[in-house]
């Protein structure tokens, strides 16, 4: 077993690490997405498709802002996990604190900008009349909590980089539990309606962020905040975060395009698309968790120069993703009629939901492969590859697919266009990721680290085994991360 300094992912079964970390992340994300899904269901119980459409427009814009936080958390995980894998724990602690500080600053500016421009943004994506007013008010309340979103995302990523699956899961589950309890209370008991849903989101995000920071402090993963540390961290952080944010932004911007396109078919179609979007994140939360989980696994093994384990992790992640998507697709196809009745959408909205459950969900297999490939690119020194593949899908292939959709397909055409774009680009990305993960094996001498290679002799069997492991490791073939730079 690896000592705490070197990281727990550098030994043992890579498939087990993938499964355990994904399961833990999935549990947290599933609960969080279930809360979002339940919130949309609560809104639908108000009996007005315009309200559901308004929340759908608002979520399309919030998806963009949240993606900035995701990109920043990717950079945090990549740097912290590498330092942990290289046994440079003090450096990892400084990087973790600086990542949180930088993220909060960036997302505060983002939140102010979105709040100021919320009405023009709603108009750009096709929101009109009452639906536009609902969306603008929802954004005014909920986007103010964006800095809390960043804190919770980065703290959870830091915990995953350490290999603490349970606590990273609890970060998201805490916020989800708060939202699930508050949303119906504020919406129905206190009669706040859609405003209550937005306010519950703010409180839940604050709870999640405080939980994450507390856990990181408890695991001694944070150093005291330092302006000098943040300045030193800024360059390597944004070297990864810049491309990662650009990569993450492509998907929500494409979703804005889809929302604009489907708005021509009326509020019912937008409501159906909002339900399909929530179904996507709820059903495939495991894939989102997988892409985050393997970042820490790849990062630790990359930092420890274990090239063969990096390639094995990538392969195992692809196998896991395929099995997961097939299972979720089968479940969605079975439940499709129930979902349509439950949300009470009319013909246009119902057709969008059915198209997603029967066809679109299957296409997510290739989007899942793209997520896995992107995690490899971000942690193996090729973040711009992630950017290139995502933007090729969302800025080139997606518009072409939408233009090519026959008008006779109606609103469900948005689902088919999304699936086609995912298949074409996902297939290319998975090949590139495989070649990259297989190309980093080199034999080099180990670097000097912040800790002794093994603990001092104590007479215990565990100490003796640690020293034997260290001696074996000195002669082991290692992979050289710098070979990619």
TrEMBL record:
GO MF entry, a single one: xenobiotic transmembrane transporter activity
Presence of keyword Lipid metabolism: no
Keywords of the record: Cell membrane, Membrane, Transmembrane, Transmembrane helix, Transport
Protein name per its UniProtKB record: Multidrug transporter
Pfam families: MatE
Subcellular location: Cell inner membrane
Source species of the chain: Pikeienuella piscinae
Membrane topology: Multi-pass membrane protein
Chain segments annotated as transmembrane: 20-45, 57-79, 99-118, 138-158, 170-190, 196-216, 237-263, 275-298, 318-340, 352-377, 415-434
GO cellular component, as recorded: plasma membrane
InterPro entries given in the database record: MATE_fam (IPR002528), MdtK-like (IPR048279), Membrane_Transporter-Flippase (IPR052031)
């Amino acid at each position: 077993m690896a000592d705490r300094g070197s990281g727990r992912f550098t030994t043992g079964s890579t498939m087990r690490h993938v499964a355990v970390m994904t399961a833990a992340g999935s549990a947290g994300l599933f609960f969080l997405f279930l809360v979002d899904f339940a919130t949309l269901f609560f809104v639908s119980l108000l009996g007005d498709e315009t309200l559901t459409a308004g929340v759908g427009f608002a979520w399309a814009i919030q998806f963009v802002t949240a993606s900035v936080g995701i990109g920043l958390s990717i950079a945090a995980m990549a740097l912290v996990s590498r330092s942990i894998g290289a046994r440079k724990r003090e450096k990892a602690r400084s990087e973790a604190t600086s990542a949180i500080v930088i993220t909060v600053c960036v997302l505060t500016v983002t939140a102010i900008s979105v709040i100021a421009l919320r009405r023009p943004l709603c108009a750009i994506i096709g929101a009109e009349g009452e639906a536009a007013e609902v969306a603008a008010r929802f954004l005014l309340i909920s986007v103010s909590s964006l800095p809390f979103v960043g804190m919770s995302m980065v703290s959870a990523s830091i915990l995953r980089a350490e290999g603490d699956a349970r606590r990273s899961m609890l970060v998201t589950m805490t916020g989800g539990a708060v939202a699930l309890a508050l949303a119906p209370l504020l919406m129905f008991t206190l009669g706040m309606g859609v405003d209550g849903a937005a306010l519950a989101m703010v409180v839940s995000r604050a709870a999640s962020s405080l939980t994450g920071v507390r856990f990181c402090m408890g695991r001694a993963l944070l150093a005291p905040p330092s302006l000098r540390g943040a300045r030193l961290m800024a360059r390597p952080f944004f070297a990864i975060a810049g491309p990662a944010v650009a990569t993450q932004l492509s998907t929500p911007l494409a979703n804005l395009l889809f929302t604009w396109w489907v708005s021509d078919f009326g509020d019912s179609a937008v409501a159906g698309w909002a339900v399909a979007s929530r179904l996507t994140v709820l059903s495939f939360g495991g894939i989102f968790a997988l892409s985050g989980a393997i970042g820490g696994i790849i990062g630790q093994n990359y930092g420890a120069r274990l090239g063969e384990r990096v390639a094995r992790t990538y392969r195992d992640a692809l196998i896991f993703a395929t099995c997961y998507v097939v299972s979720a697709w089968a479940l969605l196809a079975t439940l499709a009629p129930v979902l349509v009745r439950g949300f009470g959408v009319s013909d246009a909205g119902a057709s969008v939901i059915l198209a997603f459950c029967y066809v679109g969900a299957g296409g997510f297999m290739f989007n899942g492969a793209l997520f896995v490939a992107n995690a490899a690119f971000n942690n193996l020194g090729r973040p711009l590859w992630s950017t290139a593949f995502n933007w090729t899908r969302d800025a080139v292939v997606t518009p072409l697919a939408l233009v090519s959709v026959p008008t006779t397909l109606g609103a469900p055409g948005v689902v088919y266009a999304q699936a086609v774009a995912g298949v074409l680009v996902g297939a290319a990305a998975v090949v590139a990721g495989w070649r990259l993960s297989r190309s980093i094996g080199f034999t080099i001498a180990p670097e000097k680290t912040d800790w002794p290679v093994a603990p001092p002799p104590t007479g215990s069997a565990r100490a003796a085994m640690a020293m034997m492991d260290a001696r074996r490791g000195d002669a082991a073939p290692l992979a050289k991360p710098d070979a990619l730079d």
